Task: structure prediction
Amino acid sequence: MVMIGGGIGPDILAFVRTNVHIGGEGRSVAIFRAATPRGAFVDSDSTTTTPPIMPAVTSNPPTRSAASRAYVIAATLFGILGLAAFARAVQKPRFDEIDVERINIIAPDGKPRLVISNAERAPDVIINGKTYHRSGSNEAGMIFYNEEGSENGGMGFSGHTRDGHVSANAGFMFDQYGQDQTVGLTYDEQDGRRSAGLRVWDRPNQSVTVLADMVEPIKQMPNGPEKTRRMTAVRDSAMKLGLGGAQRVFVGKQSDRTATVVLADAQSRPRLRLVVDSVGAARIEFLDDAGKVLRTLSATP
Result:
């Protein structure tokens, strides 16, 4: 007998003491003869004269005894299995390592909040519940979503050598609400010519879906000169309407190895450049709206 918590209580003993028949017909032994005080126990060989709580039944045939034992054993096993299943259900799964092509993080209402994926399973753009094809090629990385389930930033990266030519890029972007990226860290490399830096864009108040609806039908056209022509025309029109936004700030390194700060106007035209070139010469340039340098201040007199 195993005693738990200082002894088996009378109610438990009264439940467990049901006569279990062993041996031949007409013979029975009560495992627990009577309820006992907390902390005490009486085994089957006890000579106590305390009357049993339930009268012994001696007329059950052996088949019923076997069925009773089977029932008790089955009930016990089911109870143990149920407890084990419950314990597993409340435990958080833990993995040392997993291989996966895409992970979707969602909010309690089912809206996406974060997607981590390879390039092949990268999601399309979702804005205001509508899906659009992504401009350019997909990349491995992460896509962020706001509380409404609309994309509002992300991180992507790629790099390869093909036919002897190196191409690599990476970006970490934060989108304006309802618009395209407004702050980003970028890196680009083409055959050893590298640029990297911080970029800031000025975006319009209109939703990016206005421009997206204009270019979506063209994106679904087969690649070719006609698709290129129509896309260029739509983007030029969007820029004139102020739908495309403008890059206003660049701070970083250009592909000619100059460290540069570029400040641009609302049409993305550079108007002021602070430059330190690859040999260490510094200068400040003022430009007109056509990109012509109007004045240069250098470190040399």
